[in-house]
Amino acid sequence: MGYLIGKGEDAAFWAKLRQDYDIYAPKRFPKQGRFSDTDIIRYDRVESGAEIVFDEKSDYPAKEVLTPICQAILYFTEDEYRASKASQRPILLFMRPCDIHAMQHQEKIYLENGGVADLYYRRMRERVHIVLMECSEGWDTCFCVSMGTNRVEDYALAVRQTEQGLLFDVREDALKTYFAGQPAADFQPVFVEKNSVSVTVPEIADKELLLKLKEHPFWQQFNGRCESCGACTIACSTCTCFTTRDVIYGDNPAVGERRRVTSSCQVSGFDDMAGGISFRKDAASRMRYKMLHKFRDYKARFGDHHMCVGCGRCTDRCPQFISVTATLEKMAAAVAELSSASK
After folding, report:
1. What's the whole-number mean pLDDT along residues 60-86?
2. Quick one: what percent of the chain has pLDDT higher than 70?
């Protein structure tokens, strides 16, 4: 069922929603971009539709709501510890189709991997009701069509911004009451059918080819380009790497809290282990690990989709302008070369 929430008539609608839901969506933060006098768009709580950025891709993904960059996971004293508490209020989360697919990929890691569900992710996910933000054209670094993440059916609401106001497609019965008295409208979301960028993920047929690919010299170019800053993975809508840190209260080292803090496999030292062991000592090996995880290992483990959803945020955020699509093309060329050589 479709409805129109007209401009100038939406204050009561948003106020009614806020009584029962926390609303998170892409929001503009003026003058907070990485360059002088630039803005940044990231997810935050909003009070009305006027705060939501519909016509630009957010610099950071919706995962920041589900898995905050820094969150307390437990508190401890000399004698005991307890898990951190969380709000019980449901969340309306405005998401692009690629971010919805990304959330589904994250669910496999946090809720299915190893048969043990992550408490902190699960309690947050249970609160979320998806609001699909229509995305009919995409942007210059998007390649969601190639990754099969341009279309979704799993949402509670869908929304389109028009000159007259906001059109909503309501699928969840519990939300229909908030649209009582609003004019009906014929609306079904439209999805991206073709990106300006397309990719073909190479098929790595067997372990022998995989091992040869890991040794291919094309990876070495990243030792001279990649800064190992981790900007690509922080902006990635599917990455899940984190570290834990203990924060001590006052002078007593036995009282404090443990925090989960977003981190990155691309940062030097992330994989360091006791005994001075490090699995990926340079930028080339870290880039190789990321690309193979996104475009081979995740699918090999879970058997359905590649981990990357084609949002292109990693390309947008890289200070050295390393393109994930260009890197994937180089990886595909290396696979083709090695496959031909083995025949």
Report:
1. 94
2. 100
